[in-house]
Amino acid sequence: MISINNITKSYNGTYKAVDNLNLEIKDGEIYGLLGPNGAGKTTTIKMITGIIAPTNGNIEINGININKNPIKAKEQFGYVPDSPDMFLRLTGIEYLNFMADVYGVSKEDRTERIKEMSKRFGMESDIGDKIQAYSHGMRQKIILIGVMIHKPKVWILDEPMTGLDPKSAFTLKEMMREHADAGNTVVFSTHVLEVAEKICDKVAIINKGQLIFNGTLKSMKDEFKENESLEEMFLEMTENE
Amino acid sequence: MSRLGIITKYFIRNALNEMFASRKMKPIFIAILMIFTVSMISMPFTVIIGSGYGVLHSMGQEGILLSFIISMGATVCFFFGIYTIMNVFYFSDDIEILLPLPFKSSEIVFGKFMAVLINMYIYTAMLVVPLITYGIVSHAQIVYYFYAIIVLIITPILPMIFASLICMALMRFTNLSKHKDGFRMFTGCASLILVVAFNYFNTSSGSKMTRVQTLQKFSEGNNSMMDTMEGIFITNKFSSYGLLYNNEIRGLLFILLALILSIIIFIIYYYIGGKLYLKGVIGISESYSKRENILENGKADKLIKISSPLKALVIRDIKIMFRTPTFFINCIAMILYLPAILGVAMLSNGNIAYIRNLLNNNTSIYGFVIVGTFVFASMCIMTGGASATALSREGRDFIVSKYIPVSYKTQLHSKILSSLCINEFGTVIVYIVLILIGVSPMLFILGIAVSIGAILVISLLGIFIDFKSPKLEWENEKAMFKKNYMPLLIMLIIFVLAAILVGLNIVIKNYMIIFAICMGIILIGSYIFYKLLLNIAYKIYNEN
User: How many CA atoms are closer than 13 Å to the CA of B171, on its beta-carbon side?
Assistant: First the structure.
């Protein structure tokens, strides 16, 4: 569960990248963060994960405040950043082992998890190679496996589908659903409205740092004309702002 | 504008930006600071010129001072140039952008060479104060200073050409190997070794004369000693003569000769370099993969091991340093480079026997050995080693440090440990040097202790400087090593400390006290830097 209470992030004291945002992401939910480029999605995610500190407000992950008790809070989630170009000189398996060490995963658990996830993402023949030699999609997959290695209750994914081939994107969506159905939390940002439409239980639409919609897709449709597509509703909301 | 003009302008502007652009200081201040630091470093040479001129002039050998200044400048450019060349020519990612553009490879070489040359003028700035001093003590006319400017401009050209040809000839073979990174590291090191060897044979050719012959030559007067200065950088000789005879027509001829020769050699280099360079850079960014299922053949089980977060962070850092050619050359190979240069100087001309003899006869120089060890160990990691880029090396990977559940203290400790693991390699070199010069067991232990401590405190200083203003937003590894005036500043601090210690040793004449003072400086320095680092690390890892 993630509670975001009145968070604001301002730069130079004037420009507000995120403005007084409130969100409650419950267990068992897949939550999609939507919004145009530069809306404040990544800034919000970075504040949730403790990468940047909010200027005002509180964030709690499973009841633990990320700024007051950062280590404990960071143990709760797994995070996929928007760019998978990291640790390029390490091999896939070295990266996974590193992540398992950092999160204190036992040898048996990490071995089992690496085998299971590599198979699921079709990476068995690649994890022995350097990440540098991977394609964009393969890098995205290895980062995903690394994030899931300690079985975090909360998944925070920034544009997780970018670069994935159709099969891997399908696998990831399937896994997100399984994770949420097991009583865990999934929050992710995306530009692809079809993805949001297919798998999100709830969506939050952010524009210019402000929350302009928060709720189920059904409630959104109720607010607008029944026959409008998500794309039309999205464009209408973000243009009116 | 022609393509050559465009690319040259791009590289020159880039090089100037890299050197002087800073968010905190105005470029002019950075330039003044650099010139000041470099001038301070050249102070010992200035003193030699100032005090030696009178005596040498009376013997008709004052010209040797000019030869000395210029050859020193060329040698320094040669040693440090190869490292800049490798970074600019081969470890820079602009290659991928430039190759698809319609530039001839010789045009790229020309542009990159100009960028390197501009970098090298920092080192040539070392010659400015000694040359001015020479001008003053020899009551030179304005034309001398005019010639001096020309000499300063042409001095690094020849050493740079040789250094880049060595580099290109070796890198030419990089593409033959599947493991490009590994091969690039190997050729990078081979280039460094070649430069040292090259210089050794180059300078030793001048000392073939026996002592009697040298004395005879010396007594001839009429600047006859300048004839004995041989070497492959032939423009040095003409430059020295040009400056010496600045008030005669032959002076002008010598300067013109040096200038024309530099231009001719450069034109030849333009064509040869262009051909060699292209073969070395095409495909440089390709990486090799095995596509082997290590989960099935059991190899993965050996690779999956448990470590503490601290150990995992240290191992990751060291692995990345060893596997990234730019990091390997800049952080690891450079630790060996300076000792190699000094070592060659020491091994030649029977200096070892002389030092051994001195050490056997009296203990009064033990204090100097301790101070020397302090300076030598510090100099090994002066260029930064693994510490001065401890945080910056992470680049965009730094984001991971912010979201993993590892405390800022553990992360800082991992940086200190990985830096020390690499930098303390300098102590191994000190160990070898102390054995070679045959010190007593007591002095050996003291020397090693001082070396370990000196590397600790300089490493902490390096980490502190890096944490204070980390450079995390780099596109390629090379871009991180842009502003390289920090080693000069560290060198200045070391020199000032060394001067104070030497002075104290002359007064106190007790090596145990000197040892205690050294250790005191090390302990206090380390404590202060560690405490400062804790504060900065907290801010870096927890705030933003």
Answer: 31
Q: Is the pLDDT of residue A110 over 90?
A: yes
Residue A99 has pLDDT above 90, yes or no: yes
With contacts defined as CB-CB under 8 Å, which chain A residues touch B418?
none
Q: Return the structure tokens found at A104.
A: 């204190």
Tokens of A1: 């569960």
Dump pLDDT digits (tens) for B428-453: 988 988 888 888 899 999 999 999 99
Q: Which residues, at least 6 apart from A129, have a Cβ–Cβ distance to it below 8 Å?
A: A91, A92, B289, B290, B291
Our measurement of the distance from residue A42's CA atom to the centroid of its chain's CA atoms, rounded to an integer in Å, reads: 9
Q: What is the pLDDT of residue A103?
A: 95
Q: What does the pLDDT look like over A57-82, one tens digit per residue?
A: 999 999 999 989 999 999 999 999 98
CB B162 within 8 Å of CB B197:
no
Backbone angles phi and psi of B340, in degrees to 5: -65, -45
CA distance B426 to B404: 33
Q: Is the ipTM of this complex over 0.85?
A: yes
Q: Which helix (H) or strand (E) holds A78?
A: strand A77-80
Contact list in B for residue A89 (CB cut-off 8 A) is 181, 319-320, 323-324
Task: Give the three-state DSSP class for B544.
Answer: coil
Radius of gyration of chain A (CA): 18
Dig out the tokens for B80 from the structure. 């440090």
B236-253: per-residue pLDDT in tens? 889 999 999 988 899 999
User: In this complex, do B316 and A87 lie within 8 Å of one another by their Cβ atoms?
Assistant: yes
Residue of B nearest to A51 (CA): B402
In angstroms, rounded to a whole number, what is the distance separating the alpha carbons of residues A181 and A28?
A: 6
Query: Which tens digit of pLDDT belongs to each residue from B195-212?
Result: 777 766 666 555 555 666
Q: What is the pLDDT of residue B293?
A: 83
**Tell me, what's the pLDDT at B175?**
62
Contacts 24+ apart (CB under 8 A), B425-431: B425/B332, B425/B335, B425/B336, B425/B380, B426/B335, B426/B339, B426/B377, B426/B380, B426/B381, B426/B385, B426/B451, B426/B455, B427/B377, B427/B451, B427/B452, B427/B455, B429/B335, B429/B336, B429/B339, B429/B380, B430/B373, B430/B376, B430/B377, B430/B380
pLDDT, chain B, mean: 84
Which residue is it, tokens 């007591």? B442
Residue A170 Cα distances to A117, A181, A199, angstroms: 14, 16, 11
The Cα B112–Cα B115 span in angstroms is 5
Instruction: For residue B323, give the nearest of A89, A126, A127 by CB distance.
Output: A89
* Segment (H or E) for A23: strand A15-25
Mean pLDDT score, A89-94: 93
> What pLDDT is recorded for position B259?
94
Q: Give the number of C-alpha atoms closer than 13 A to the C-alpha of residue B80, restricted to the C-beta side.
A: 21
- The whole-angstrom separation of Cα B450 and Cα B442 is 12
**B273-308: b (≥16 Cβ within 10 Å) or e:** bbebbbebbeebeebeeeeebbbeeeebeeebeebe
Q: Which amino acid is at A201?
A: D
- Tokens at residue B7, please? 């690319």
pLDDT in tens, B175-189: 655 666 776 777 778
Which residues of chain B does A49 touch, with a Cβ-Cβ cutoff of 8 Å?
A: 402-403
The answer to whether the CB atoms of A133 and B287 lie below 8 A apart is yes
B316 to chain A: closest CA residue: A98
pLDDT in tens, B471-497: 888 766 766 665 556 677 777 888 888
